[in-house]
Design brief:
By secondary structure, the chain is α/β, with parallel strands linked by helices. Helix content is about 30%, strand content about 30%. The radius of gyration is 28 Å and the shape is elongated.
């Protein structure tokens, strides 16, 4: 039997904002038993990577786990991979932040484990060739990608048992191809099958390097794996088999292999990721930003904050250095990838992950505000600026002050796409619309699957669906922003609106508006027709105080015809504790039920969401009474690694008004939107 090399790397990660009980569960089911088992086998060499999100948790909650890792590093059993500290998609963040995140991780590993990382983990293995130079300049000399990256770059499978140099001129790094077969067999198949796989391929060639690099959560945290890996002792059996075959299977760290063995060659590695990610994204990770405008909004906010930090750094003084460092750390936390995409993994559908991203980004922005506006000496300031915030070649408008950040998009019916309350670092429009996903039909047809030998992988469809989910498969006409303004039939029912089975009158909810700055406010106008009647709609937005935003409408019509239909104004809002029982709808002092309630209010001059703890509420007051309001929870159906889930995303509140023109041709409405602790 020819000798082979085996380099094993495991990546452990939990996203920013994940629930404490999930961290604790992963620690108990996976991290702790894995590391304790590994510790008992000092001759088993592994390479490990821990994301900064997880390291921060372990430092606070389980420092003894880090001490155990340090012991194994010290006895040369474990090699630690560096990387971008808070696990961003490297191709999706500014290059200066790539370098900053890598340096942050390398510094931490030096100080905590007394080791200098030579290699790094590539988050979600999302790769572009330009990364090689950035990685090299950050002091890293190798990384791990999938063998599919190499196969799609024209390299034959039989030539993937080693490493390749990639990059330009003298800024090249080594790239190791992870064997896809191993990713699907470890730890899901019997350990003997993996040994047999090595034997089969080692018959014809000496010195092959087999590389494995994948999620550590496969070893206990994924559904069904704790029993298989630990209670049924898959891991110990695997380690014992490696020992028994150590004469021809040589476990090796990546850096050691790099030192002693030559590269297979040099290669230009095409852009890509692992196969499942490519399927979920439609071929490129950046497609998530096209499919999900809410993800794109969050992504562009991240870039906006990164640029703001750069601006603040240029204007900072020596006394501000600590603030700049703190702002960068908050930005890096807000770059954690999980909330920006969706597949089997990826947490775009999970409010608590999106909310955490916004919290850190807004916190970073607040720090920058203190630096950029320190000359105001606490006096009020207001910024209104045109900006291609979405990077869609169309100008939107930013309005912000010390208390709020608003982003309004004229091309999207002058919708309010983001409303940040800086006092609590919270985006009130952190919502997600109901979208058709490829797996929705699959959900309803799914049957329970059973593994014949071993345990199912996360990619096997072992989930079953509640038949009641079928009733929730509704798809929205528009992204769920605020201030989208409709004209609708007078007899439109709440059910039709909730189920998006309606047609607007005219195109005021879908068309573009002309924007202009008007003093301390922003004015949007659109002229169109409702039937044969020419109508102009003007919408003005202004920050009135530290707790109030005012929206004013003016409708004018040309000609004597009657304006058919009602004016509808849509608000899609989230609360800091999402749909907790502490929140309820209120109208004229009456409690209308919690945020999971679907209901109707009639003939109202005010409406709101109250907080029983009096920490954060909303209220709407109208200069002219509304005919009524519909309110309902927006719920999406998505898949996760454990189940098909019905997730509350936001509360939709739809106010309807009957414009009355009398002898004149204009109708006006003022909505005072109060936000904060004293709005109940």
């Amino acid at each position: 039997m020819h000798k082979i090399y085996l380099a094993l790397a495991l990546h452990f990660h939990q996203p920013i904002g994940n629930f404490k009980n999930i961290f604790e569960r992963a620690e108990q089911l996976c991290y702790q038993p894995f590391l304790q088992t590994l510790f008992k086998y000092p001759d088993i060499k592994l390479t490990l990577h821990f994301s900064g999100c997880l390291l921060d948790y372990l430092e606070e909650a389980q420092p003894q786990t880090l001490d155990l890792i340090k012991t194994m590093v010290g006895r040369s059993q474990v090699e630690l991979l560096g990387g971008a500290y808070y696990e961003p998609i490297l191709t999706a963040i500014p290059e200066k932040d790539v370098a900053g995140q890598i340096r942050l991780m390398s510094r931490y590993l030096r100080e905590r484990f007394n080791c200098e990382p030579r290699g790094m983990w590539i988050p979600e293995r999302v790769w572009e060739s330009r990364l090689a130079g950035l990685i090299f300049e950050s002091g890293i000399r190798y990384c791990i990608l999938d063998d599919t990256h190499f196969l799609k770059s024209g390299i034959k499978k039989e030539d993937t048992y080693g490493y390749y140099w990639t990059g330009k001129s003298n800024k090249k790094i080594a790239v190791f191809p992870c064997d896809k077969h191993l990713r699907y067999s470890i730890p899901f198949k019997a350990p003997e099958e993996t040994i047999d796989y090595f034997k089969h391929l080692a018959q014809d060639k000496e010195g092959l390097l087999f590389t494995y690099g994948d999620d550590g959560e496969k070893f206990g945290e994924w559904p069904g794996t704790h029993q298989w890996v630990f209670q049924e002792k898959w891991l110990e059996k695997f380690f014992v088999l490696l020992r028994q075959n150590s004469e021809w299977i040589k476990l090796i760290h990546f850096s050691d292999y790099l030192n002693q063995e030559q590269a297979v060659g040099s290669a230009e590695i095409n852009a890509g990721s692992y196969d499942e990610m490519m399927q979920w994204s439609g071929g490129s990770w950046s497609n998530f930003l096209l499919k999900y405008p809410e993800s794109n909004q969050m992504h562009k906010k991240m870039h906006y904050v990164s640029a703001k930090i750069e601006q603040a750094e240029k204007r900072s003084k020596r006394k501000d250095l600590t603030k700049i460092t703190e702002a960068k750390r908050e930005l890096y936390r807000g770059q954690c990838n999980c909330a920006y995409w969706h597949g089997v993994f990826g947490g775009l559908y999970l409010f608590h992950l999106r909310s955490a991203v916004y919290e850190h980004l807004i916190c970073a922005e607040k720090i920058c505000d203190d630096i950029l506006h320190q000359s105001k000496q606490g006096k009020p300031w207001l910024k209104i600026a045109k900006s291609d915030f979405d990077k869609d070649q169309q100008k939107g408008l930013i309005m912000e002050n010390r208390d709020f950040f608003l982003y309004l998009d004229p091309a999207q019916a002058a919708s309010l796409k983001e409303l940040d309350h800086k006092g609590i670092c919270f985006n009130l429009i952190d919502t997600l619309s109901r979208k058709k996903e490829a797996y929705h039909q699959k959900i309803l047809n799914a049957q329970a699957a059973k593994a014949e030998d071993g345990v199912l992988t996360i990619h096997d469809d072992f989930r079953t669906a509640d038949p009641l989910l079928k009733e929730k498969l509704v798809y929205d006409k528009f992204p769920r922003y605020c201030l989208r303004t409709y004209f609708v039939r007078e007899d439109l029912t709440d059910k039709e609106f909730i189920n998006s089975s309606y047609q607007e009158l005219g195109d005021f909810a879908s068309g573009a508006y002309g924007p202009k700055k008007k003093g301390s406010s922003i004015m949007f106008e659109r002229q169109s027709k409702i039937g044969r009647l020419a109508v102009k709609l003007a919408k003005k937005i202004q920050i009135k105080s530290e707790k109030e935003i005012e929206i004013c409408y003016n409708i004018s019509k040309k000609g004597p015809g009657k304006l058919e239909g009602l004016l509808g104004v849509e608000f899609n809002v989230t609360m800091p504790w999402l749909n907790a029982e502490r929140y309820s709808y209120v109208c004229a002092g009456e409690d209308l039920g919690g945020l999971n309630t679907t209901g109707t209010a009639k003939a109202l001059s005010s409406f709101g969401i109250s907080d029983s703890k009096s920490e954060f509420g909303l209220s709407y007051n109208f200069s002219q009474a509304a005919d009524g309001a519909w309110f309902f929870p927006v719920q999406t159906i998505s898949q996760s690694e454990r189940a098909y889930e019905l997730n509350y995303q936001c509360s939709c509140i739809f106010f309807r008004f009957q414009p009355s023109f009398g002898k004149g041709k204009d109708w006006n409405l003022r909505i005072s939107w109060s936000i904060g602790p004293s709005t109940n």
